Amino acid sequence: MSELFDRIDALVASRSPLPPPAERKRLRQAHGLTLDEVASALDVRRATVSGWESGKTEPRPPEREAYARLLGKLAELYPAHPNATAPVEGTAVPEAFSSAPALTPQAQPVPTGPAPEAAAMTTEQKTQTRTAANAVPPAAAPSLARTTRTTSSASRRPAAQKAAPAASPAGGTDPRFENGPLTVVDVDADGQVLAYCTGGLVLDVPAKSIPSLVEWTLKEAKLGAPKLSGPGKDADPLLVLTEAALERYGLPVALTEEERLAGRIQEGHKVIKQLARAEWKLTKRGFGPWARIYRPATGSERACVQLCIPSWNALDTRHWADVAQLPPAELARVLGVYASRVMTPRGSTAVTGLELMTAFHPPTRASEPDADGKRHSEHNPGSLGKDPVDCAPCEAPDGHPLLVDLPRFHVRGPGEKLFEEAYDWARPMTDAECTLRHLVGVDVNMAFAAGANGLVVGLGAPTHVKAPLFDPKLPGSWLVDLSHVDLSRVKVGKDKWADLDASLLPSPFTPKGERPEGPAWYATPTVAYAVELGYEVRPLEAYVRSENGRYLDGWYNRLRDAFLATMADLGVHADMAPADFLAAMDGYRRRDPQLAIVVSAIKATVKGGIGKLRERPRGEGWKPGQPWRALARPTWRPDIRAAVISRTRINMHRKIVKHAAFTGQYPVAILSDCAVYASDGPSPLDFLPYRDGKPLPGGFKLGINPGLVKHEGTQSVLWGEEVRERFNAPELNLARYIKDGTVTDVDNGE
Question: Among the four residues 2, 489, 569, 607, which has the most C-beta atoms within 10 Å?
């Protein structure tokens, strides 16, 4: 009989009632529990719990009964909002979820905004509240654990006592922006315009035109994000318009070829006329994929809304993959995670990377009150200021106005032009390396971000100095002869020298790894490394910047934290043991493809932001010797870009020198942040030196933090030799193709 009872109990447990997926996630977040904590308690994988919360899978016995018990107890503590939409038809809901008692006054969370007065809601206000019960984003979307919100602050449910892991200063805690930084505007099958916000919230949109949509956004939608620094500005709300929304508001679903090249629709378009009649203005770039609609600020009040139009190619597929094809709720989730962890997108990832720098160091701030008690705008120390500065002639790219007097076809050499770029170096394999079986690539995580960390850069204009004494703490560009630096004997520590095979190493001073032949221009980190290797330097002249600072520190910290938090959501954590880290990285993108897109966008924000510091002309009818639009920005600073790239390349060279001195192993190829070694085994652990789980100090270390390395890919030595023979290129850079072994002419951007 006991066996029969056991079977009956198992049958009951197999149908233990559960709330809908959205409610499961809300309850976990309301109690401040992480996915890992729930998974550990139930003895399942983190991805399993994530699947239950996203609705992709359902728990089975024996975990189902325990999971239902957990959720039932949480529901008693955090009952659903009384106006929440009913669960999806067919989903069983236990009494604990449908009629939980109200919280006692002692148990209620502390409100973050005005006191709730639900009884004061009008019928119209109540009808403007919806939830995305059938399209709630998967776990880890940024939210404050609310199942429903409204444009009326009077009925807003207090936030949970502990924010979800993805919450940040940029999203959700400020009552002015309680509905998040952005929304995706769409039209449903019944013709109703809906705004899909982060956290699963869906709002009815009453606006009938683009001007009224802008008005609604600024007056009722409660969208935006707080500023990232004291003197900065709050982020403007971002509206993402789907194709259905474009049609509803009279905009083209796609741009014509002429409009695509111009980057905007024509000035005479009816929507632009509507905006003009309503006294709204557009920025100089017009109504394009990233349009900004505003009215001139009055005092401290800003009236500005930004539009993102995916079908006009606002979201570059190189960085955002197929995110533009996602359903509205999922698109809101991806962009919302990025906005909460990085910042609300202001354009391409490159534009956003540059804007993030300015967000941490606005050009001006309010002064102390004067004799009349008034404050004035003044320079913000540590910023680049509000006016552009000229670069040094050696830092100017070809075609710059500073070079207008050069002969027309003159080609500047190393003694005239600063050329700090990432590595693209390779060499033929030695006979000994050809006897090994594998080629293993390791890639530095967030290499350019790591290069920016703690870097002192110039803030103002350069000063020209003749025959200066080199100062490694002084940012600038130095004309110096480094051809005497001999890599066969270098310092690898204080008073510790190492003998190396210089023929198997790239020079640290040139992107192609060639040894310099005479005086050349270098950024401060490159010259400082020559001194570090044990060699004297005597600059002939320099352009130095005495006004300097660690301008990129806040930018780096923000992007580092965004990267680490998103990778943690994908199951890859800092401080993992090497073998565990490699296992966690294997297929991490498949665990949550949407969050993997966020990772790609964060990386592109780093590289694109650094690249924007030396933006080149982009059409505009430009001719060599004439200024181009980017030169008018204070953030057009090729010297800062050169310093970051210089330090990134030097960081890589320092690692390969330490590795060679300790192991006798040398790279066969380096491409930017990826180095390839010949190895007996297919794993990085087969050639990276670890003793008692500890890596070589100053060498390569496996891990997810910026500056540490991951496994980029493994191919056979035979593959490498065959590829080079097929292309008749003994020095073909195998690092470019090590990831999947496919050799093409396409540059992957790495």
Answer: 569
